[in-house]
Amino acid sequence: MKRVDLPLSHLSLAQKLDLMETLWAELSRDDTKLESPEWHKSVLENREKAFKDGKVTTSDWEQAKKRIRKRVS
Q1: How far apart are CA 67 and CA 69, in angstroms?
Q2: Is residue 30 part of a domain?
Q3: What is the share, in percent, of the chain residues with pLDDT greater than 70?
Q4: Residue 70, in any domain of the structure
Q5: E-assigned strand segments in the chain
Q6: Number of neighbours of residue 68 by Cβ within 10 angstroms
Q7: Cα gap 58→66, rounded to integer Å
Q8: How does DSSP classify residue 11?
Q9: Do the beta carbons of residue 27 and residue 34 sit within 8 Å?
Q10: Is residue 44 in a domain?
Q11: How far apart are CA 16 and CA 25, in angstroms?
Q12: What does the pLDDT look like over 30-63, one tens digit per residue?
């Protein structure tokens, strides 16, 4: 496989986040190729318990992205 070199140091934080989002969308198209490590299960269980106990809240993904972009721009 040929390595792809990108001028990452020239990109803004917002551009880097956008690039990450694009890469993740591409990688996650076929979720059968993605294997989660075992420790993910315990992390997810802990987060689910915290949510059920009212210790954390959720956000709509589009709203969350807007908040993140606002912070980094």
Answers
A1: 6
A2: no
A3: 100
A4: yes
A5: none
A6: 13
A7: 14
A8: S
A9: yes
A10: yes
A11: 14
A12: 878 878 889 999 999 999 999 999 999 889 999 9
Is the pLDDT assigned to residue 28 strictly greater than 80? Answer: yes
Per-residue exposure over 1-31, b if at least 16 CB sit within 10 Å of its own CB, e if not = eeeeeeeeeeeeeeeebeeeeeeeeeeeeee
The answer to whether 17 and 72 have CB atoms below 8 angstroms apart is yes
Distance CA 26, CA 6 (A): 17
**What are the two backbone dihedrals, phi and then psi, of residue 45, each rounded to the nearest 5 degrees?**
-65, -40
In a domain, residue 72? The reply is: yes
CB-side neighbour CA atoms (13 Å) of 67: 6
* Structural domain span for residue 66: 37-73
Per the structure, the count of domains in the chain is 1
Global pTM value: 0.45
CB of 17 closer than 8 Å to CB of 68:
yes
